[in-house]
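Running co-folding for magnesium ion.
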Amino acid sequence: MPSDASAVDPAFGWRWDNSYSRLPGVFHSRVEPTPVSGPRWGIFNRSLASALGLESVLLEQPGQADYFTGNRLFAGSEPLAQAYAGHQFGNLTRLGDGRAILLGEHVDPAGMRWDIQLKGPGRTPYSRGGDGRAALGPMLREHLISEAMHALGIPTTRSLAVALTGEPVFREETLQGAVLTRVASSHLRVGTFELFSALGDAQALRTLVDYTLRRHYPERSSEPNPALALLEGVVDRQSALVAQWMRVGFVHGVMNTDNVALSGETLDYGPCAFIDAYDPATVFSSIDRQGRYAFGNQPKITSWNLARFAEALVPILDSDPARAIELAQACLESFPARFRRDWLAAYRGKLGLLTEDTEDAALIEELLAWMHSTQADFTRTFRNLKPTALLGDPAHAPETNPAAPTSTSSEPAPSDPRFLEWHRRWTERLQRQGVPLPQVLSLMHRNNPVIIPRNHAVQQALDAAAQSNDWAPFHTLLAALQSPYQESGAPDALRNPPPPGTPRCRTFCGT
Ligand code: AMP
Ligand code: MG
């Protein structure tokens, strides 16, 4: 991004350069956070602050919680709420930041540009009937899960801080208010384009294409058809992102088009969770009664969301409307094959396959089908796969039960003939590829986490912090999630699936 203005706040290391604020007024509304009565710290992300080039020790002082609720503004920030629309559960609605305020963009020492946004700082012109506030539990969930996703190597927005407001928020019950400071490579979304397309504002669409290309796809900005270049870039990144979600068992929960970031980052952690037992129909969100955003539906919904993005771009894809639709369709039709490629690559990694074979898809699908029929734990099954019996390494002698858990568990061990037959085929496939065992294991360990934020553990940690002011479980879980691929000292209770009979926790939208 070209920077025609920048403001340095020497006290904290901020280098503000607010390019979105310089866009025409149709894109945003100026608004300041509404002060709260009792700002205090929930959590501050020291390592993220340092990575951003900020003075983490100074920022972490008790009095600075004022900045992270919006009671005080950093010098150089220019607060605004962004205008956008979005298809929510299939219906187009005019939205906008109703409970978020963008403070501005910080340019880190490496020259990377980051949106710094407060989530829950009070009403904005887009709040409709809402209070513009957020509750502590959902903000801690976003902090925990977005940081876990980052550690898993999946593109995501991050959380710099959660500060308590000292004020109640009223939902079905009275909860503590909190503000999360979100760090994102931007908050441009499919819904941003949908708004200006619905308003018939082709000029705004062109401005947005240009802005988004420069900010996220500079390598594509000299292509002859900018709107098409952007569409292709977004299709690529969404495909890659959702393949990664499928690799770790992540369920976003509200894949409305206003929550689809054009940067390709995971955006907006509401009723999100990770699957335990493998079941493509898994839904956690209490409001998703039809299973629209179920685990296994995420690729299809991504394709649907991308179609909404393409539609929004039609007015500027070509001066001939028929040609514009043709271009959009051709790009959308490439999605299934692209996604299949990304998904296969992710799952080959999980099975230690460094080469490609036409039967790989069947091999992967057969394992998933077995997991589904036996309700095997997704994370544990993959992590416990032993590729050893076949490669003649005496240090890894064949085991009677190749997927037996290494940790204490009440899970039934997979020793049935169907699994053993699958294991034999997998073994043959590994032998055919002829790659040494250490390389296979290393690939598998990089793709199969030991620990994920399991929903029952997340819920316990959030309840302890938000309801009993006991932050120890939250900090223990957050720390354990920092190195998800390493066998570590994380307590079994955080690594294991929920005890049998644990009802699936429902998560709420956090509004
Ligand atoms: P979300 O489901 O969090 O992606 O939010 C969808 C839309 O509702 C966005 O435009 C939000 O800004 C808005 N919204 C959610 N919660 C609130 C709230 N408490 N007050 C005002 N607007 C809200
Ligand atoms: Mg949202």
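Result summary
The longest strand covers residues 158-170.
Residues 390-413 have pLDDT under 50 and may be disordered.
Job closed.
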